[in-house]
Protein 1
Amino acid sequence: MGDNASMIWNFTKMHGLGNDFVMLDGVRQSIDMTPDRARALAHRQFGIGCDQILLVDTPLHPEADFRYRIFNADGGEVEHCGNGARCFVKFVHEQKLSSRNPLRAEIATGLITLEALPNGDVVVDMGQTRFAPEDLPFDVTGLATRTEGTDTLYGLPLQVNGTEQLVWLSAVAISNPHAVQVVTDVDRAPVAQVGPLIESHPRFARRVNAGFLQIVDRHTAYLRVYERGAGETLACGTGACAAVAAGIRRGLLDSPVRLRARGGWLTIEWDGSALRMTGPTTTVFSSSIDIDRLVASIPAGI
Ligand SMILES: N[C@@H](CCC[C@H](N)C(=O)O)C(=O)O
């Protein structure tokens, strides 16, 4: 158990398809998370290194087994995390916080159900999917629109290398905001160049996760995501759900969809309301860290 005075935090490093996490048990140790602390833990050179931090805690909701909070590598707290949700289940079971299966977890936007399968994969009922621009929020005033299937696409003008390009985006909220574009070849998609322009575009008041989706056939797709607050990751679970929902609405995909992220494969099922994500999780190691010493060790401006 962590000692409050010395600020030693026990943690476990995990990943879901290479989207990596520092997992913290806030049930048996007292964790006061701040943006500075989250950034220090996530720092690839000075800290442990991760895309996100998950803080597991006792629930406030009477029907939940646990509550967990999610922090991006930039220190910002966010609504949802698909790969983190799967890691949460394995973490709770391995740390013997609970042997319950399925589990009910409280996240910032409500309750979700998660289940460990006999093969070790975890299936997550991802909760509400929304498509109205105000759900992200996405200010679409004056933007060109186009209808494809049952989806509305918004033409976002971007300056790329001094040239204006119109990028057609599906708007999807899986609690957290996603802007998905279809590309012909995900390996050649300009994720590093265009991703940050979309992620921080002023029309997305809370910024956005930018997805690049390649359709392979009606049940197979490839995806890369430039994540809000973390940059391109090897996989993004909510991004996968958003991309599949957008692909189905656009008439390009049918459920179930096998989706390949750079770090591996997920299965996404969507019947127009319930959205389920199934995939693996991995525990890397557990250790402990003096959080205040870590924060103090990072030079200003880095
Ligand atoms: N990697 C996650 C998503 C984490 C949050 C995201 N970067 C955001 O800011 O909304 C996933 O697997 O879903």
Protein 2
Amino acid sequence: MSMHTPRVDKKVTLNTIARMKGVEPITMVTAYDALFAQLFDGEVEMILVGDSLNMSFFGKEDTLSATMDQMIYHTQAVCNGAKKACVVFDMPFGTYITPKVALENATRVYRETCAQAVKIEGGREKADIVRTLSENGIAVVAHIGLMPQHVRSEGGYRVRGKDEEDIKRLLEDALELEAAGAVMILIEGVKAKAAKAVTDAVKVPTVGIGAGNVTDGQVLVWSDMFGFFEAFTPKFVKQYCNGAKEVREGLEQYVNEVKSRAFPDEEHSY
Ligand SMILES: Nc1nc(=O)c2c([nH]1)NC[C@@H]1CN(c3ccc(C(=O)N[C@@H](CCC(=O)O)C(=O)O)cc3)CN21
Ligand SMILES: CC(C)C(=O)C(=O)O
């Protein structure tokens, strides 16, 4: 067992999260499996099962081909490891194209996983979907700013909130999503000024990724922050461990020891 005293010692609910705004920064990381969820549980308040798993778990170029079945399977794995963290389920591309479709898919999330909220990408144009889910008892995290599910239609990942007009747009989006019932706003890839305007304007907590040190919380993708994901590194990623380097060194040692018959030794044999 860990010698470390957990920071988070009881079940984190959406009420816990709501009360943290303006009091204490909210910590969130992604996880895709039980092993890492268990490592993170007790340290962070929230775990996002992000559709980024389509890239950093499944090996695709973008998030667009992730399916409900894949996301549910990974969320079940995370739920098996995370007993305290508030788990958020990322609705994949194409699974919330109408309020009806969104409700059918999000209902599955509550029925089949421990997730306490679902996340959808979009601004005011998604307000009716947020409202339908909220009215049916499903909590929604609204994801605004840089929206990875728009990578193909927009021809890349582009930082938002660079001028007053776009800041106003993001602010109006956030207010409409909050009015529709969103319990949290996730703000990705925006200038800090835009994230601050949104955070100051809404009563619900905001969690940022590449949105500056102005939001009510922060989120990072686990494989980025621990140095396992090497396909690309967005500017907002701070690397807290060199995971890939550690694994490569360990693997090299194992291979050398097998080749030289240094492993297994007496200690590791029956
Ligand atoms: N491993 C991983 N980490 C992530 O943060 C992440 C995923 N996967 N998959 C889904 C999306 C995609 N994300 C991305 C991907 C690329 C950039 C990027 O290239 N950003 C540029 C800025 C572009 C600009 O200036 O307009 C950068 O240099 O940071 C940002 C976010 C965030 N999400
Ligand atoms: C980048 C984060 C916020 C996300 O949406 C994901 O992990 O899919």
